[in-house]
Amino acid sequence: MKKMINSDILAAIIAEGQDTIPNVDLIVRDYHFENSLNYVLVGLRRSGKSTLLFERAQELVDQGADWSQIIYINFEDERLSEFTLQDFNNILIAANQLTTKKHYFFFDEIQNVDGWERFARRLADQHERVYITGSNSKVLGQDIILRLGGRYMTQYVAPFNFDEYLKSLEISHTSRDLLKTKEVGQVIAATNDYLNYGGLPEAIHLQDKRNYLTNIYKNVFLADIIVRNGIRNQKSLSLLIRKIAETVMHEVSYSNLYNSVKSVVSSTSRQSIIDYIEYAQKAYLLFSTKNYFSKFSEREGMPRFYFTDNGILNLFLIDKNPALLENMVAVTLRNKYFDKLFYLKSSKTKIDVDFYVPEKKMAIQVAWTISGMAREREIDNLIKLADSFKEVEKLVIVTKAEEETIERDGKTIEVVPLYKFLLKAANSEI
């Protein structure tokens, strides 16, 4: 018969957390939690979900709670390796050993315990405040809503935005700093690394970023997609993701992806391709934008796919600069506007614009440079759009480094270098 986890052991683990969390140095992130709600934090592996738990705990203490009320348990602690559903009630006993005041529960990697959802639902029904993270192999946003009976809100946690990235590197970037040559040089150098290696927090200070990102991708691929969904045809999935990386910047049909994969792996089916893409999106590896000009029923058929983090996309690319630039803009806009981000393409008018945000009435083109022939192409696309699509009021071209204001036919186009676009987005100016 299994021996239950002693409440004294749990009390010791909780007390250790109460001593440790106050001293954790954090980059304060732009997330808001309602005090009256419970949350499950979801997102790409290693995007900072656990440290956001620490930030929330510190925030609650700043609001008046004391540390004895913070009940943090990481279920990857080896002392809990035998923890089962029957042990959960001992957490409540242990918490009350430390204080009888209201508790705030923080559960990290809770998916390690089978049946954990029952305990989470019970706490919610008892009006406790609970914050949960877990690896995506078992804790995903779409699933969690059903499994927790609507008692929890999901909070998507993205890799660092550029403001957070610069803070992690201790690069000052106030508006005054950006008037100085040295400081601008530091920001631009950081932009290059951010473009190539993305914003996963642990990667920022590593020397061998590529090896770290390769391991993160392998974990997502194997644990969050292959194992979780019982996929047997790993070669088809691997090839599919590589093909999708090659399509960044372009819309692509499921049929084309199917044909590309099937030409190499003959056992692939069209339905399996559709399923694999859904699994990759649920694991927060990929996301897509739809054509705003298409009929609603047709929007799903020709998406443009992007990767949630530039560093992982960069693992697949050869001629990489334009694709990385567009993917970075896509990630930045997606993290602000989610499914309210589109692209614009019309065979009738020949308009082809990379991004459209209806609520901002803003159209955005992305170009590594607008020198040479690219200049007229990018400008003409936006002018043509503004002439035929009156809903658009703001026209933007994001480049790697160029900046200017273009006046044409009574229209104004703002050309913005990437580093300024990223900072504007982080400050809610885009």
Automatic annotation (TrEMBL):
SUPFAM superfamilies referenced in this protein's UniProt entry, alphabetically: P-loop containing nucleoside triphosphate hydrolases
Domain AAA as annotated: residue spans: 39-166
Residues in DUF4143 domain copies: 224-366
Name of the protein in its database record: ATPase
Organism: Lactobacillus kalixensis DSM 16043
